[in-house]
Amino acid sequence: MDSRRQLFLQGPITRALVTLAIPIILGNVLQTGYQLSDAFWVGRLGAASVAAVSVSFPVTFLVIALGSGLAMAGATLSAQYMGAGRQDMVDHVAAQTMVMVAITSVILGSLGFILAPYLLDLLGVAPDVHAGALGFMRVSFIGIIFVFIYAMFQALMRGVGQTRIPLYIVMAAVSLNFALDPLFIFGLGPLPGLGVMGAALATLVTQALAAAFGIYIFLRGRHGIKLRWASLKPDLPYIRRAFLLGFPGSIELSTRGLGLMIMSFLVASFGTVTIAAYGVGSNVLQVVTIPAMGLSMAVSTLVGQNIGAGNIERAARITVLGTILGFVILTLVGILAWVGAERIVAFFIPNDPQVITEGASFIRTMSLAWGCVGIQLSIVSTFRASGNMLMAMVIALVAQWMVQFPMAYVLSKHTVLQAHGLWWSFPVTNVVVAVVSVCWFLRGSWKTTRLTEEEQQTAKVSQETIIEDSIR
Q1: How far apart are CA 10 and CA 76, in angstroms?
Q2: Are residues 108 and 169 in the same domain?
Q3: Domains identified in the chain, total number
Q4: What is the spatial distance between Cα 228 and Cα 367, in angstroms, rounded to a whole number?
């Protein structure tokens, strides 16, 4: 840990970014294995089962997003305290974050379990889908506590710069999930098949094992964090501070999840071909952003540790380099996607020329500004790492509710572009958000926040200052 800390605080920035980013990127790729595994096995049950998983996912995603701000707060505080050399506070942050996670997950999981049938009724789920969706959703809500605990483990380990251990755990968990899915879905011998609910149960088991292993690693204390049972006594002042710090992050992620649902409604009004094209393009976009997300998480860790150590200008250089790398990487990927757009869509839907044509148009249009996605991800990660979660939240809200949705509606419903207006809302929004992010970064107000200083204002006061600055 000492050699890694020296690399992060004093060593070559490019080497530090690569050291952190590669395991994170690989872990993110493997994490998608849960969805791919479920899709692969559930798809063999029929359309109703696939629909049951599709209906349940946005609801569970929103619940998980509500608790994700705690992960952001934990990662930010652990990174800054690690940079400041405060191992005692790193351990304290880990313990208190786990306490908050346990309480939050029990509350949200219980509410979700109880309200699940009412949520499905509200969504107007078809009768042949309802039973499978209810079983899948309720098992998923039972397993929320394990999802939260492991997510916190990943975030805290990332905060102290340890990204390899989570990668190994995810690798094992995804492999086990792929093996358990058919066993629980279809049954074997005396073990009955549970249908679509079996997919949720397989995920619950593997996430529970991953969470237990994460806690075990914390208790051993050999990888940057030492968890002590005595430290699990709730520290109310810290919990309040972490909640105020992380709450904007929860709102940001929840807004993004809700935005996906709203955009889906708008796309659905243009018919099956547009829906299919949007589905393929969205999947491609998720894959494309994986390296940029990994790079932005590495930027966040390095910036947080250097701010904690007082290396503010080095933190700024890290952000600039991460931004340039993100822009270059996603621009190159965008060029490749432009050239091979038809082939990409045909890989998913090989026998529908209309969908291939429309999907290729979507990919080519949004790939024009993929480099700008790399810019905004790196800069927003710096805002989070400095403790300015409100900045990231405001950017997300402006991007979706003031730029993309209004533009998508106007261009698609009130111009000759029709469905192509939906596609153009993506690159225009990415360019606007990238410009806003760069301007806000250059303003430098993020440099004034250092959460490790005892005399520093509380997170709430810092957020109020940002609001006042924005108004002025």
Answers
A1: 19
A2: yes
A3: 2
A4: 48
Report yes or no: 75 and 162 within 8 Å, Cβ to Cβ: no
- Domain holding 183, by residue range, is 32-234
- pLDDT digits 0-9 by tens, 168-206: 999 999 889 888 988 988 887 777 778 888 888 998 999
Domain identity same for 280 and 225: no
Residue 141 in domain: yes
Put simply, whether the predicted model's pTM sits higher than 0.90 gets the answer no
One-letter identity of residue 133 = A
Q: Residue 187: phi, psi to the nearest 5? A: 80, 165
Place of tokens 């980013």: 21
Kindly provide the b/e burial profile for residues 150-167, where b requires at least 16 CB atoms within 10 angstroms of the residue's own CB.
Answer: bbbbbbbbbbbbbbbbbb
Helix (H/G/I), strand (E/B), else coil: 428: helix
CA distance 307 to 39: 42
| Sequence-distant (≥ 6) Cβ neighbours of residue 377 within 8 angstroms | 289, 292, 293, 295, 296, 326
Cβ(327)–Cβ(296) under 8 Å? Answer: no
In a domain, 17, yes or no: no
Amino acid (1-letter code) at residue 87: Q
Residue keyed to tokens 């098949």:
193
Q: How far apart are alpha carbons 366 and 233 in whole angstroms?
A: 49
Residue 20 CA to residue 448 CA, distance in Å, equals 25
Tell me the C-alpha distance between 204 and 187, whole Å. Answer: 17
Structure tokens at 92: 């304290």
Tell me the residue type at 95: A
DSSP letter for each residue of 56-78: HHHHHHHHHHHHHHHHHHHHHHH
Are 326 and 457 members of one domain? Answer: yes
Q: Are residues 150 and 38 in the same domain?
A: yes
Convert the pLDDT of each residue in 117-138 to its tens digit. 888 787 676 777 778 888 888 8
Question: Who's near 348: CB < 8 A, 6+ residues apart?
Answer: 280, 283, 359
